[in-house]
Automatic annotation (TrEMBL):
Gene3D superfamilies: HIT-like (3.30.428.10)
PROSITE patterns linked to this entry: HIT_1 (PS00892), HIT_2 (PS51084)
Residue ranges constituting the HIT domain according to the UniProt record: 33-143
Database matches in InterPro entries: Histidine_triad_CS, Histidine_triad_HIT, HIT-like, HIT-like_sf
Motif Histidine triad motif, residue range(s) on this chain: 127-131
Active-site residues, as the UniProt record annotates them: 129 (tele-amp-histidine intermediate)
Pfam families: HIT
Designated name of the protein: HIT domain-containing protein
Taxonomic superkingdom: Eukaryota
Length: 143
């Protein structure tokens, strides 16, 4: 059987995924998935949207309410550990959007916001995102 070659094009470059190590292939495919959700090229159940932020239901929910909140413009913000002073505004927008999502979902009286940063924290998509979790009693410690 032949090898499947997947090519990703952007405005500035073309990437052949078969030439990259497997961990990079997964990461590139993952963050491009969020870009496609933002562009409405991949279906999602949108819970909240404004000009800077998009919130949609997680496809593998870990609680009765599990919504992902992402910035529409990545601007190098692949993980919280890479945040720079220029990202202060969008970080605030993301947290406020988490509050709006909690209100819309009826969990404003008890919810958790999680940001996984890097491989040891199990970050699987390198496009900064918040998990808004609720609808059940949360436990401590969380992980």
């Amino acid at each position: 059987m032949g090898k499947t070659i997947k090519i990703i094009e952007s405005d500035t470059s073309i990437i052949c995924l078969c030439c990259l190590p497997i961990e990079l292939r997964v990461n590139i495919s993952s963050f491009l998935r969020f870009d496609k959700i933002i562009a409405k090229e991949i279906p999602s159940t949108i819970v909240y949207e404004d000009d800077k932020v998009l919130a949609f239901r997680d496809i593998d929910p870990q609680a009765p309410v599990h919504v992902l909140v992402i910035p529409k413009l990545r601007d190098g913000l692949t993980e919280l550990g890479k945040a720079e002073p220029r990202h202060k505004e969008i970080l605030g927008e993301l947290l406020y959007a988490a509050r709006v999502v909690a209100e819309k979902e009826g969990i404003l009286d008890g919810f958790r916001v999680v940001i996984n940063n890097g491989p040891s924290a199990c970050q699987s998509v390198y496009h900064l995102h918040l998990h808004v979790l609720g609808g059940r009693q949360m436990k401590w410690p969380p992980g």
